Amino acid sequence: MSAASLAAVGLGGLFLQQLADVVVGTLLRGITLAQQLSHLATPAGLIYMGLLLAYVAMPVLVNWPRLSGANARSTEHNP
Q: For residue 59, is it within any domain?
C-alpha cells in the first residue's frame, strides 16, 4: 500500500466517524449541527480535533516503517 492510499483510509474513516457523530448528536441528544460545531471552539473541542487528526494520520504512521523500507528498496540498483 502507498502512503496516499493509507491516508485515504484515514480520511474515509474520519468521514464515517463524523457522520455517525453528527447523526447521534442530532437524533439521540437533540443537539443541532451549529451547536456541535460551536463546541469545537472550546478547549475540549480543540483537543478533540487534535485527536481526530491523529486518527486520520494513524494508518500512515503505523505503516511508516514498511513504507520507508519499500521506498529504499525501490531506489536501490542491482549490479
A: yes
Burial class of 15 by CB neighbour count within 10 A (0 to 12, 13 to 18, 19+): exposed
Tell which residue, 37, 42, 35, has the closest CA to residue 18: 37
The three grid cell numbers given for residue 43, joined into one nine-digit string:
478547549
Interhelix angle 43-62/3-27, nearest 10 degrees:
150
3, containing H or E segment: helix 3-27
Give the total number of structural domains in the chain. Answer: 1
Q: What is the CA radius of gyration of the chain?
A: 18
Kindly report, residue by residue over 5-60, the tens digit of the pLDDT. Answer: 999 999 999 999 999 999 999 999 999 999 999 999 999 999 999 999 999 999 99
Classify residue 78: in a domain, yes or no.
Answer: no
